[in-house]
């Protein structure tokens, strides 16, 4: 009896071992790979959202600085100075006044200076010219980064044709911008092209798109994105134990209890395993949907986010739009002064009230988007520029009648009509330019009628 019993025990042990091995190879290993792939994709999507926000911020910085450097009034003062008609003090006095208006439009700027003939003729904010190279020769807008502090120096030449008259130098603190879109344990950094070449040379990498790379290392996973129109790369990294920790804990528990549960009943182990895995997968999907919704809806104003706007347009949004379409770019007048005087909580309240007016004033098929900071974009589908102008005038009147604050609220806007995809993509920038023209005209009227 002992020998047959021993054989039965040996058979049972062998069957359990074989079942465990087959289960690991057929069930757990593919399941582990699938769950880790899902987590990796979730990490990529979260990193992409932050990278895209950084790219848009950098693009706006370059465009805003280039617009300041291209102002013709300052160039005319330089020409008058070189002709001997005015003094250098007159040039400096004008530059100081002109720079005051331009500096206010630079989101995230810590400080700025204007260089002429190797000398600083005006400055704003917290920037030390003595720690910078003033004898510089950049032919176009150039960015110099400090990866350790997440700061960027932007040099923008002031040109008259091909002649370089001087430079605008602006110091940006990107750390504050990235903190606003921080994703859990994800670490954000900025690197130069040379630094990225060294990183890619030292690691195995996967090219996701023409400008995006993924490094799945043993300890960390890195997402790398080239910020277009710059020589800067955005890098998001997260420890693998953070990305895959829940999966490793889950699968470790299943592998421990699986042989024991087989000895009790195959039915129980199947129900327990797949039921538990199903709940985990559902939790991952809920988590993924939550991240997706946070990327699509602006939490402060409950309007669509800029990320959602471009994602919507890229995903066949052009095919369902009703043309003609009118684009409106809206900006809050004196918003920085409101924040500085009354605090950011009051500023947030102003944005919330304005968003409520915009959403209640447009039609159900129109789209209200918080484009960034105190800027909003309105997309009026199947709407001429005249009809959109009427709606915007009503919005302006309602916003001016908001009585929840100790000050008046006003906005500036620019509108452009588009009849096709190409005009729509270019129209956002054109509307932005018109909006700033309206803002400058409003300031001019204030100066003429004090």
Count up the domains.
2
Structural class: alpha+beta
List the quaternary state of the chains. Answer: single chain
Overall form = globular
Give the rounded overall mean pLDDT: 80
Radius of gyration, CA atoms, in whole angstroms:
29 Å
- Give start-end ranges of low-pLDDT stretches: none
The share of residues in extended strands comes to 15-25%
Q: What spatial order of strands do you see in the largest sheet?
A: 2-1-5-4-3
Biggest sheet character? 5 strands, antiparallel
The count of DSSP E runs of length 2 or more, i.e. the number of strands, is 15
Termini separation comes to 111 Å
Summarize the structure in words:
The protein is globular, with a radius of gyration of 29 Å. A hairpin with a 5-residue loop joins β9 and β10. It is built from twelve helices and 15 strands. The model has no long low-confidence stretch (mean pLDDT 80). The chain folds into two domains: 26-244, no CATH class; 304-448, Reverse transcriptase/Diguanylate cyclase domain (Alpha-Beta Plaits). The protein has 450 residues and is α+β, with helices and mostly antiparallel strands. Helices cover 56% and strands 23% of the residues. A five-stranded antiparallel β-sheet has the order 2-1-5-4-3.
